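Format notes (please read before filing issues)

Several people have asked whether sequences and structure tokens are stored in separate files. They are not. Every record keeps both together, in the order shown below: the sequence lines, then the token lines. Line labels are part of the format and must not be stripped during preprocessing.
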Amino acid sequence: MKKNYIKKSVRILQSYVPGEQPKDLQIVKLNTNENPYPPSPRVRKVLAAFQPEALQRYPDPLSLDLRRAIAKLHACAPEQVFIGNGSDEILALCTRAFVEDQGSIGYFEPSYS
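Then the structure lines:
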């Protein structure tokens, strides 16, 4: 007998079904954050100066430069700026920090997280 190590609650989940991918390039799917506009000249300038070697190393795990820049912009201390790997991670960490075991939370649907 083959043992299945995946929890039953996970095995019964339905897989994600992506929305239609239109072939017509004139159609822009705003609901999936597609952008109908090209990058600004400033973005193009940064990309032109980009050095691919910068991707060979992991970035600063504390994101100090980014936290300092955001703190300066919002007139707060870098220690007050929280950086995460996307909204899913930030919401998960907030839930772990602030929701008691067996606690409940409310959220809106539809949601992207």
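For reference, the curators noted about this record: Helices lie at 8-11, 41-49, 64-74, 87-98. The radius of gyration is 21 Å.
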